[in-house]
Specification:
The chain has one domain (about 1-255): Beta Barrel (Porin), CATH 2.40.160. It has an eleven-stranded mixed β-barrel. It has one helix at about 1-25; strands at about 25-45, 50-60, 65-80, 85-95, 110-125, 125-140, 155-170, 180-190, 200-215, 220-235, 240-255. It contains one helix and eleven strands. By secondary structure, the chain is mostly beta strands. Helices cover about 10% and strands about 65% of the residues. A hairpin with a 2-residue loop joins strand 10 and strand 11.
């Protein structure tokens, strides 16, 4: 529990330091309230292979306004009980939301992705630590026409993601069926490649959650969620950030 407390302090300190650094340079930002809802499903084929599918319904103004819909599918391969690989495809549909839209001409735009991912699990005592590294190839819709109402071309981008997560059982034993738990995670996303503009730093996501594991088949968790997002373009000659805070609820189903 001490290690988890130290880790929580470190993550919060890093996010606070990032916010302080942003305030000291020529940058602008806005704040939005968000609510994210996600369903993750895995279907086991055998001891090594499984299929993955998920849907994420992301809302702004808590739940009133559309922010983004994300669909992701993939194939998992368990190399080791603590090492899992996944490769697959994702589609994201991003809406106009907030005072300053992500797209310069305020259009709703699609995004196609292929991705490769590895997850490493590392239990220490009753606490489960995990590391997730993901590489994404992104085709992001856009239009250079200021009067456009939809995307008419795609730009290719690369992104690297790293997430650290800790799951802490509340019964003082490894997490089992009908057990409550706490979880915290932090994920940073870095863009790279020739088409990256302003947002080499792309996003940071922080979650502080409470969860309940009903059985091997199902668990649910939810809590506080913070997203820092940098635009890939300048707004009035300045780097622009969204500070989105709210809640997230996630349901996991294993078949």
């Amino acid at each position: 529990m001490k290690r988890a407390s130290y880790l929580l302090f470190f993550i919060i300190f890093c996010n606070f330091s990032l916010l302080q650094a942003q305030a000291q340079v020529n940058r602008e930002s806005e704040n939005n309230q968000i609510g994210w809802f996600a369903l993750f499903m895995n279907y086991k084929l055998d001891d090594k292979w499984s299929l993955h599918g998920e849907f994420q319904w992301r809302r702004a103004d808590w739940i009133v306004e559309s922010q983004q819909n994300l669909y992701r599918v993939g194939v998992n391969y368990k190399l080791h009980p603590q090492v899992t690989f996944r490769a697959g495809y994702a589609f994201a549909d991003t809406y106009k939301y907030g005072k300053i839209p992500i797209s310069s001409n305020a259009i709703r735009f699609p995004e196609h992705r292929s991705y490769q991912m590895v997850t490493l699990s590392n239990p220490i005592g009753v606490v489960l630590f995990s590391h997730r590294m993901m590489l994404e190839q992104r085709w992001v819709g856009r239009s250079m026409d200021p009067n456009a109402t939809k995307a008419d071309e795609f730009v290719f981008l690369n992104r690297l993601r790293y997430m650290f997560r800790s799951d802490i059982p509340l019964k003082g034993k490894p997490l089992g069926n009908k057990d409550p738990y706490l979880a915290l995670y932090d994920e940073i996303m870095i863009g790279f490649g020739k088409n990256i503009n302003q947002n080499v730093f792309d996003q940071n996501r922080l979650g502080l959650l409470a969860g309940y594991k009903f059985s091997y088949t199902a668990r649910i968790e939810g809590g506080y969620f913070n997203q820092i997002l940098q635009f890939g373009r300048l707004v009035d000659g300045k780097n622009f950030f969204q500070h989105n805070q709210g809640f997230i609820i996630m349901t996991y189903v294993n078949l």
